[in-house]
Amino acid sequence: MSIAEPLILSVETATLSGSVALSRGEVILAAFAGDSGVSHSNTLLNDIDKLLNEAHVALSEIDLFAIATGPGSFTGLRIGIATVKALAATLDRPCAGIPTLQAVALAAGESAYSVALLPAGRGEVFAQLFSVTKDGFVTALDQATHISPQRLIEKYGSLESVLWCGDGAIANRALIERDSRGRIAPEIPVLAKQIASLALTRFREEHLEKPDALQAIYVRPSDAELKV
Questions:
Q1: Does pLDDT of 159 surpass 50?
Q2: Are residues 220 and 162 in the same domain?
Q3: Whether pTM exceeds 0.90
């Protein structure tokens, strides 16, 4: 693509509330979080329509679709990815699939060690270690995993000045503050903004995907699969 500043529609349905964002290059034109009490299947298309109307942009003007690919809510991921696939395929636009934990780490800001955490159900969390530079370059230092909070502390708690970030960190605040040397980052209100930022990097590096190539990162089997 030869577009200097792409118009990016970013969708995040990996968390309970989810969020959407519209950006032109590095500039966020509109963004908001969803309703954690309502299924993404009932709200996502309306949220996208509201977003476009707020920015006075037509869906046909979108140059790039970005989507959080997980880990996160299994149902949410399926809804978000299916929606983005359909919209991008209809308009013949490229996509950027962004790992959710990478966006969580970026949202927390610069850190030599950032542990990005999201709830994984059954008392566990999805976790991954990153480094984040001042200019927003995010490097994975290990692989995403699902892990118990106690094992989490055993794995990362001894790191100096570690930054704990994401909903999983907030949910386990007491344990983290008691047994680690790090600090907890503030809550992230609209993660779709970081999805947009990482998608812009992918665009500039020409690392985009066709809609049918988008794949969810589940990390572990769903509860339904575990019961089979």
A1: yes
A2: no
A3: yes
